[in-house]
Amino acid sequence: MGVTIPTSAQPRLKTPAHDPSSNATGSSYARRRVQQRSYREQSGRPSLSIEEGQSWKERKKRGEHPELPGSENLASLNERDHIFLVDNSETMKQYRKQIADVVSLLAYIVEDSDDDGLDIHFTQSVYKNNSKKSTEISAAVYQQQYMGIPDMRDLDSEGIQRSPHPQKRLGFYILTDAKWQPTDVGEIIKDVVQRMKANGLPKEHVGIQFIRFGEDQASVDKLDGLDHGLGLKDEAM
Questions:
Q1: Stated pTM of the model
Q2: Which has more pLDDT, 204 or 56?
């Protein structure tokens, strides 16, 4: 499940394929509706705007039974630990409302898939929370200060390096503008893949999704390199 939050145009979520971890990582690049429609035509995946998702959520909370577009692809999210890692550096402060909207919707979609509760971490804070309620997870976005220089070492110390856990699959949702300082995120991901192989785990065991905010081309290129430049196609199991 990937999403790009542009500075203009309605953001859209793209529901995952049955393999949620292409090369153990995923990110999205569409900027405008035209490009997003083109992406859907090329990929064959349904997509969902934040506005559409929120409408679905409100109808469901009213006791209706609306169909979520792409729900047939969500079975792969079941019985996972779902972990949100929010980049709360200074450059992400302008997106706080959009971050909360995305976390709220995604957490609502997956909250019943994680029997021991969802987790949320922040790159610039030691704060973390675990809850079975999506409202508590999204509320944490407003409780944190957004400050400092972007630094993704938290990937190493808090989240991904605790994986892979042989007993349960993991899904990481990393919300960032990808303007972090030169932490070698690619090496962290490669290490996860190697440890998965050493434990005899399938590539679907860990899914990593980068949810990008903004339209900075250097950030697009950085995430594209994580998607396609790590040489993991033959490495991942």
A1: 0.78
A2: 56
